[in-house]
Design goal:
Blueprint lengths: L8 E4 L6 E4 L5 E5 L2 H7 L4 E7 L3 E5 L3 E5 L7 E5 L6 E6 L6 E5 L13 E3 L23 H4 L2 H13 L6
Parallel strand pairs: 3-10
Antiparallel strand pairs: 1-2, 2-5, 3-4, 4-9, 6-7, 7-8, 8-9
Length: about 170
Protein backbone atom coordinates (compact mmCIF):
# COMPACT_ATOMS: atom_id res chain seq x y z
CA UNK A 1 0.00 0.00 0.00
CA UNK A 2 1.34 3.43 -0.95
CA UNK A 3 0.90 6.29 1.48
CA UNK A 4 0.80 9.86 0.31
CA UNK A 5 2.79 12.24 2.45
CA UNK A 6 1.14 15.61 2.98
CA UNK A 7 3.12 18.57 1.76
CA UNK A 8 4.44 20.79 4.52
CA UNK A 9 6.10 24.17 4.25
CA UNK A 10 8.22 25.82 6.92
CA UNK A 11 9.12 29.44 7.33
CA UNK A 12 9.75 32.25 9.74
CA UNK A 13 11.05 35.72 10.28
CA UNK A 14 14.49 37.09 9.42
CA UNK A 15 16.02 36.64 12.87
CA UNK A 16 14.50 33.15 13.23
CA UNK A 17 12.87 33.99 16.58
CA UNK A 18 9.49 33.02 15.03
CA UNK A 19 9.22 29.78 13.09
CA UNK A 20 6.06 28.15 11.71
CA UNK A 21 4.92 25.20 9.62
CA UNK A 22 2.06 25.08 7.12
CA UNK A 23 0.62 21.56 7.37
CA UNK A 24 -0.71 21.49 3.81
CA UNK A 25 -0.74 23.40 0.56
CA UNK A 26 -2.67 26.66 0.86
CA UNK A 27 -6.17 27.18 -0.45
CA UNK A 28 -4.94 29.73 -2.98
CA UNK A 29 -2.06 32.18 -3.49
CA UNK A 30 -2.85 35.81 -4.29
CA UNK A 31 -0.34 38.28 -5.66
CA UNK A 32 -1.91 41.61 -4.70
CA UNK A 33 -0.86 44.77 -6.51
CA UNK A 34 -3.17 47.19 -4.62
CA UNK A 35 -1.73 50.43 -3.27
CA UNK A 36 -2.39 49.32 0.32
CA UNK A 37 -0.25 46.19 -0.10
CA UNK A 38 2.43 48.23 -1.84
CA UNK A 39 2.51 50.63 1.11
CA UNK A 40 2.44 47.91 3.79
CA UNK A 41 5.20 45.85 2.21
CA UNK A 42 7.26 48.75 0.90
CA UNK A 43 7.46 47.06 -2.48
CA UNK A 44 5.43 46.41 -5.64
CA UNK A 45 3.04 43.74 -4.33
CA UNK A 46 2.19 41.30 -1.55
CA UNK A 47 2.28 37.54 -2.12
CA UNK A 48 -0.07 35.79 0.31
CA UNK A 49 -0.87 32.10 0.72
CA UNK A 50 -4.38 31.72 2.14
CA UNK A 51 -4.66 28.78 4.51
CA UNK A 52 -6.81 27.66 7.40
CA UNK A 53 -5.33 28.97 10.67
CA UNK A 54 -5.46 25.50 12.26
CA UNK A 55 -3.10 24.28 9.52
CA UNK A 56 -0.41 26.77 10.60
CA UNK A 57 1.61 25.56 13.57
CA UNK A 58 3.93 27.91 15.44
CA UNK A 59 7.14 25.98 16.05
CA UNK A 60 9.08 28.68 17.88
CA UNK A 61 8.45 32.10 19.35
CA UNK A 62 5.20 33.98 19.58
CA UNK A 63 4.18 36.44 16.85
CA UNK A 64 2.94 39.79 18.06
CA UNK A 65 -0.42 40.81 16.59
CA UNK A 66 -0.59 44.40 15.35
CA UNK A 67 -3.97 45.91 14.41
CA UNK A 68 -3.54 47.72 11.10
CA UNK A 69 -5.96 49.70 8.90
CA UNK A 70 -7.04 48.18 5.59
CA UNK A 71 -8.66 49.46 2.41
CA UNK A 72 -11.96 47.82 3.36
CA UNK A 73 -12.10 49.89 6.55
CA UNK A 74 -12.44 46.69 8.60
CA UNK A 75 -8.74 46.41 9.38
CA UNK A 76 -6.40 43.50 9.55
CA UNK A 77 -4.25 41.86 12.19
CA UNK A 78 -0.64 41.51 11.09
CA UNK A 79 1.36 38.91 13.02
CA UNK A 80 4.96 40.06 13.34
CA UNK A 81 8.10 38.82 14.99
CA UNK A 82 8.46 40.88 18.20
CA UNK A 83 12.25 41.05 17.67
CA UNK A 84 12.87 41.80 13.96
CA UNK A 85 9.29 43.04 13.20
CA UNK A 86 8.93 40.96 10.00
CA UNK A 87 5.29 40.21 9.11
CA UNK A 88 4.74 36.44 8.86
CA UNK A 89 0.96 36.45 8.22
CA UNK A 90 -2.21 38.51 8.40
CA UNK A 91 -5.78 37.88 9.40
CA UNK A 92 -8.34 40.07 7.67
CA UNK A 93 -11.62 41.09 9.34
CA UNK A 94 -13.76 39.32 6.73
CA UNK A 95 -12.25 35.93 7.57
CA UNK A 96 -11.53 36.57 11.23
CA UNK A 97 -9.00 34.36 12.94
CA UNK A 98 -9.97 31.28 10.92
CA UNK A 99 -7.98 32.12 7.79
CA UNK A 100 -4.38 33.23 7.60
CA UNK A 101 -2.69 35.05 4.75
CA UNK A 102 0.87 33.74 5.10
CA UNK A 103 3.55 35.95 3.55
CA UNK A 104 5.10 33.67 0.94
CA UNK A 105 8.43 35.51 1.23
CA UNK A 106 8.79 34.22 4.80
CA UNK A 107 8.78 30.58 3.65
CA UNK A 108 12.11 28.76 3.59
CA UNK A 109 11.36 27.81 -0.02
CA UNK A 110 9.13 30.58 -1.39
CA UNK A 111 9.70 29.43 -4.97
CA UNK A 112 7.48 26.40 -4.19
CA UNK A 113 4.48 28.73 -3.94
CA UNK A 114 4.01 30.87 -7.06
CA UNK A 115 0.86 32.99 -7.35
CA UNK A 116 -2.37 31.42 -8.57
CA UNK A 117 -3.67 34.86 -9.57
CA UNK A 118 -2.61 38.50 -9.75
CA UNK A 119 -5.20 40.85 -8.25
CA UNK A 120 -5.71 44.62 -8.27
CA UNK A 121 -3.58 44.86 -11.38
CA UNK A 122 -5.27 48.19 -12.19
CA UNK A 123 -2.81 49.71 -9.70
CA UNK A 124 0.22 47.53 -10.33
CA UNK A 125 3.51 49.24 -10.95
CA UNK A 126 3.89 49.80 -14.71
CA UNK A 127 7.32 48.14 -14.80
CA UNK A 128 5.97 44.85 -13.37
CA UNK A 129 5.46 42.30 -16.16
CA UNK A 130 2.88 39.61 -15.44
CA UNK A 131 3.27 36.10 -16.84
CA UNK A 132 0.87 35.07 -19.59
CA UNK A 133 0.08 31.73 -17.92
CA UNK A 134 -1.24 33.15 -14.60
CA UNK A 135 -4.70 34.74 -14.37
CA UNK A 136 -4.74 38.48 -13.69
CA UNK A 137 -7.72 40.68 -12.80
CA UNK A 138 -8.02 44.47 -12.47
CA UNK A 139 -9.61 44.30 -8.98
CA UNK A 140 -10.76 41.21 -7.02
CA UNK A 141 -12.41 38.03 -8.33
CA UNK A 142 -15.12 35.47 -7.65
CA UNK A 143 -13.65 32.48 -5.85
CA UNK A 144 -16.01 30.16 -7.73
CA UNK A 145 -14.41 31.25 -11.01
CA UNK A 146 -10.76 30.80 -10.02
CA UNK A 147 -10.31 28.50 -7.03
CA UNK A 148 -10.00 24.75 -7.61
CA UNK A 149 -12.99 22.77 -6.34
CA UNK A 150 -10.88 21.14 -3.59
CA UNK A 151 -9.98 24.58 -2.20
CA UNK A 152 -13.59 25.73 -2.41
CA UNK A 153 -14.63 22.61 -0.46
CA UNK A 154 -12.02 23.33 2.23
CA UNK A 155 -13.28 26.92 2.49
CA UNK A 156 -16.89 25.74 2.82
CA UNK A 157 -15.82 23.34 5.60
CA UNK A 158 -13.96 26.16 7.34
CA UNK A 159 -16.97 28.48 7.06
CA UNK A 160 -19.24 25.81 8.52
CA UNK A 161 -17.12 25.51 11.67
CA UNK A 162 -16.19 29.21 12.04
CA UNK A 163 -17.91 31.66 14.31
CA UNK A 164 -18.63 34.23 13.09
CA UNK A 165 -19.01 32.74 9.62
CA UNK A 166 -16.54 33.74 6.92
CA UNK A 167 -17.56 36.71 4.81
Amino acid sequence: MTTIKAEVFEGGCTCRAVRYRMMSRPLFVNCCHCRWCQRETGTAFALNAMIEADRVVVLQGKPEVVDTPSNSGKGQKISRCPACRVAVWSNYAGAGDALRFVRVGTLDEPDRMPPDIHIFTSTKQPWVRLPDDTPAVPEYYKLSEHWPEASQARRRALAARSAPPLA
